[in-house]
Specification:
The structure is a single chain. The protein is mainly alpha-helical. The protein contains 4 helices and no strands. The radius of gyration is 11 Å and the shape is globular.
């Protein structure tokens, strides 16, 4: 899948986000606003991935954050 408008590809962005071990969409919003453990959100990862990747791999926040097995 190709990157659009300067965004990382869905797979690359999801891999990075999953490495942060965020547990839910509330933590995702907090991360977008202020980072986590000194790691700011890269500019090439969208804050609203459900719109950016809607037809490019998006399958919900559990999949995006990597907690789909816990739901």
């Amino acid at each position: 899948m190709s990157a659009k408008k300067g965004w990382r590809s869905f797979d690359e962005a999801r891999e990075f986000i999953r490495s942060l071990n965020l547990k839910n969409s509330t933590e995702w919003i907090e991360y977008c606003n202020s980072g986590k453990d000194g790691i700011p959100k890269p500019n090439d990862i969208p804050s609203i991935p459900h719109l950016t990747y809607k037809n490019d791999g998006w399958n919900g926040y559990p999949d995006w954050l990597g907690y789909e097995d816990l739901v």
